[in-house]
Fold each of these.
Amino acid sequence: MRLLLHAVTTADGTEASPTGLRDQPCVRVAMNGLAAWATQFSEAPVTFGRADLLEHHALVSRLSADHAGVLPARFPTWLADAQALRAELERRQADFAAALERVRERVEIAMTVLWRSLPEHEPPPEAATPGRKYLLGRQQAFSGSDRRRARARQLADETERLVGDDLVDVRHQVCPSATVALSSAVLVPRERAENVKVRLARKEPDVRILINGPWPPYTFADVV
Amino acid sequence: MSLLELADRLLNRGVVLTGEATISVAGVDLIYLGLNVVLSAVENLKTSHAAPASRGHDG
């Protein structure tokens, strides 16, 4: 038997277990105000796919809706059996309780900001020697990159300003790839999530802003 | 983008226990992945159909 962990929650809410992944049973292990939820497999599937990811997400979302606090588990996290899971809950009880308090009645809004165009390819600078031409070219590339990073940071600041008093916590990744200007996770009170989404969705001439969620607080469940 | 953003969170974040870690999704190692790698990895998980999970809004 193997357990695929979905989340650790507060011990309030329903005790009835939903169906686990791939129609396998979902078990609940409770201890000291915490509950852990996991699908029980007779043997571990060799590979997971898109459907499994979405099923895990649906299950964690349901747990989030049913409980005051939820800490999603990184997918896939395996434990040997219920005894091993109980031992982990006991060993990490204080960490989990503190983390659950941070995300209690809060959800995550995901914001991805995409550049509308790729970096400009300016003509290489003229220079008397190949070495100087190379250095001027590098300087030109870096200054363009700096402009983009500055713009992305400006968008991050603007995001925090727009969320305003509803902002509990935020994590930004500035220019994580050539096409993405900003990837942000914003932790907000559950009841304010839809309002925050409306405020964040806006049009900008140089970027497309995509808003997702509300999701369980995946980014803020960083208990390691 | 919604599925990619979601996959980044599901695969890259969340509670880590000292349980036995499985390190492969769709044949891609997941010991440590940055966003870019995750975005590449989940290409394998994409289909031509839109994800039934939360959908993004173009603001």
Amino acid sequence: MTGFIALYVFVLAAIAGYEIVARVPASLHVPLLSGLSFVHGIVLVGAMVALGHAQTALEQVFAFLAVTLAAGNAVGGYVITDRLLGAVRSGGRKK
Amino acid sequence: MDFRSFLIALVYFVAAVLLIVGIKRMSSPRTARGSILWAGWGVLLATLVTFFWPGLSPDNVILIVAAIAVGGSLAWYAGRRVAMTDMPQMIALCSGMGGGAAAAIAAIELMEAGRHGLTVTLLAMLGGLVGSVSFSGSLLGFAKLRGWAGRPVRFKARNQASAAVLLMAAVFGLMLMGDYPSHTTMTLIFFGLALAGGIMMSLPVASADVPVAVSFYTALTGLAVALEGFVLGNEAMIIAGTVVAAAGALLTHRMGGAVHRPLDRVLFGGPADAAADGSAGAGDFPEIAAGDAGNLLASARRVAIVPGYGMAAARAQHEVLELARLLRKRGIKVRFAIHPAAGRIPSHMSLLLAEAGAAYEHTGEPEDVNPEFDTTDVCLVVGANDVVNPAARTDTSSPLYGMPILNADRSRNVIVIKRGRGRGFSGTENPLFLLDNVRVLSGEGDVAVTELIRAVEAI
């Protein structure tokens, strides 16, 4: 990706991220935080590519670690966000 | 572009959109419930299509599957089992793991001299630094929330010391840009220093402030993921990471505001430090027996209940709800006054009560409830302290001064269920307990509330 396009993507994504959560109510702070920590679990795809291309043993060790951590991030983040959002709903449902 | 690259690029694009829509839906109560499915599909699709990435060696693909199985199943198990109140440490663990993964990717990219050009090496280095800080900082935050790490460690010039360590890491990182022979060793030193910097930054954070710090680390991990995305030329990582970084930064600001602990005070310490050691506060409070308290409640027309950390610690939320139901059956108006800063995590009380089945319309935040206290006959404070401390309104020397509080003291009668004689988490004395209209019912939250239930039933 050329420098300027990369810059565009970076800045626009940052603005999007800021705007998206600009009006979040306090009751959703914790579930949203959990959701954000799930979304950065996308690092898994980078870790997979790194492990797939690893050549030396040391690289393999680091990349294996990266994939394990990233998978933990993604799966754990999904499970707890789902539970937290479930708790919020059960409060609102009896409205 | 061959078909495989086209497919990968297309799926990454779809994944990025799904992730952004997921976060968007997550930030509104109306759409929040199903939002995780959107984001979940995004990550799942991106993961699956990555197996088609050109040039993956078959042996290593087996390793990939094994690593996903190990990390995924452990996290699945932990995430299912963890209690609702322990969620913050799971979030800390997740953002730590993400940061660690980004740092490990950076390590691989940096270990071989001259693999990338200057700009890309710089980005990899930055991502590695940020990811490492988030990794070690989050893990220490996790340990603190689990109660493994004890009291915050504070020493003079601690901020300068952490800055020095991080600066040294940056120097080693910049040297990686040159053509030195021992790149692997230098990479490892760089990461060692960066990890140490994260720990030093996290040491002085009080456990009550850890959630705000965790939110900050989540934003850092997002940034690290985006930077490594630039290094690997991976659009999904760039977009998702950047969105998380920006959203996380704003959320950190909001959460810090809600608990009256802005980020700079969380990380670098502030006025609340000095007093934070007291649990031995003086004073005998005028007490009330459970029977009399029950009488008072049963003869009220309007009751407000203010839950606090004491309720969470004693897991008394079900008893409290039972008491509220009982009073309502007698035609008494009961409302939960919920302060966002009550407890140890933001919206701790809303979460607990929602989980226990409290109806949404019976709860209210300070702005809704405060005008009602003047016409409230009995306010029952269950293990809350700082959030009902009237010094926050009047005493400019109090560390709580300026924090929006619940005006419980303005009710006709106030019953405070209290375990010890101590101060609140901020370490400040609470003049509320010495007011004429306030009586203290001593005991653990669950026991005291059960006594109240019996007393009300007996009337």
